[in-house]
Amino acid sequence: MLGAVWVLYDFLVIKTVGVLAPQLGCEAGSRTYDKLKYGTHVFYINTVKMLLLVVVASILGVLPYVAVFALAYGALRIFSFGVHLKNSFLCTLIGFVYYLGSVYLSLYVEIPLWARIVLLIVSVVSFIAYALAQTKKRPIPEHQRKTLKKKSLITLAMVAVVTFVLHYILPVFSSLVLMAAVCQTVNLLPSTYKIFNEC
Asked: Last residue of some domain: 26, 60, 94?
């Protein structure tokens, strides 16, 4: 069954690249062609992961909470980058731990204000030190680094403000936004890169 899924997946990637490559003027074997193939691969993999997460979250009745976490986490990650796992299964597993773990922690564990402050300070220090953490497959051009760094810190500042504003009004959503910052901080740490051999 799993083998059949992978065959279908490879077929979709090949067919998609076959349609797009001529329109973009990419020749097989060129660097642009390889980038297109990799991008198509990532698109389909991420689409499947997202659909699976939506199905599981819906069954568990936590889809709105997952959506809030995903919004904050995605906003932070898009500018600060961070580790990307080479193994798709492991990536999916850790993604589920991040999303569902953060949701259930937010629902059932009351995080006091002082702990929120400490976690946000750790996040700010980590973002200043390590944000724009690139990988071998996703190097960041030098001319973009300053702008992306600034955007990542502004986004983190907005997350911090939302966390404090919602603390007394909607504590669960406050915790979800906070956990998004914590998870992305983990993604940036050099120790995370070493553990997953992404140095």
From this structure: 60
Q: What does the pLDDT look like over 10-65, one tens digit per residue?
A: 667 677 777 676 777 767 767 776 776 777 777 777 788 889 999 999 999 999 99
The distance from CA 124 to its chain's CA centroid, rounded to whole angstroms, is 18
Contacts with 138 (C-beta within 8 Å, 6 or more apart), sequence order: 81, 84
Supply the range of the domain harboring residue 7.
1-60
- Same domain? For 50 and 75 the reply is no
Q: Do 44 and 89 lie in a common domain?
A: no
For residue 132, what are the contacts with CB-CB under 8 A and spacing of at least 6? 80, 81, 140, 145, 148, 149, 152
Rounded to whole angstroms, what are the CA distances from 92 to 12, 65, 128, 198?
Answer: 20, 18, 28, 17
Same domain, 165 and 70: yes
| Spatial distance between the Cα atoms of 103 and 109, rounded to a whole number of angstroms | 10
Say if residue 29 is in the same domain as residue 54.
yes
pLDDT in tens, 94-110: 889 999 999 999 999 99
